[in-house]
Design brief:
The protein has 158 residues and is an alpha/beta fold. It is 25% helix and 27% strand.
């Protein structure tokens, strides 16, 4: 009888240990699966649109554009590459990664070609976020935003 009781209690103790290990490993695994959001959410933020969009070479997008720089320099972008603020890159909500855009600053006529490698911007009234270098070449650093015309030169494969 004594042996049965000891076996019973050792099984319960062993089961509790297994249960705790399972809970801990589940929590640890799910915490590694969460992603870091580049911008904090607010009432202005927009998620990326789901579903396939029909973009084509020569298509023109017009709207407000901003830039991002040192705060994200060296961090991973949505495409998986590391953001370099000195490269000519852009963030768009839905264009395929690798898409080449010719961006024209409509306030001064300056142009630059960029490659889409990130998602954003997450402000309702903006169509693109550019790297610091692209914003410098378009000459709108002091203003922070500008109105642009973005022409699709080459579609990425994503």
């Amino acid at each position: 009888m004594k042996k049965k009781i000891n076996t019973f209690f050792s099984c319960i103790f062993f089961s509790k240990q297994i249960f705790i290990i399972l809970i801990f490993s589940t929590l640890l695994t799910t915490s590694y699966c969460s992603s870091t959001v580049r911008f904090s959410s607010n009432s202005d933020s927009l998620p990326a649109k789901k579903g396939k969009q029909n973009f084509y070479v020569g298509q023109v997008l017009k709207g407000k554009c901003s830039f991002y720089a040192s705060k994200f320099h060296g961090r991973k972008t949505a495409s998986g590459e590391i953001y370099n603020m000195f490269d000519l890159t852009a963030a768009h909500r839905t264009l395929p990664f690798g898409t080449i855009l010719e961006i024209e600053n409509l306030s001064n006529g300056k142009k630059v070609k960029v490659r889409v490698n990130d998602r954003g911007p997450f402000k309702a009234n903006r169509i693109l976020d550019l790297s610091l270098q692209a914003a410098r070449q378009l000459d709108f650093i002091e203003q922070g935003t500008t109105t642009v015309k973005a022409t699709i030169i080459e579609l990425g494969k994503e």
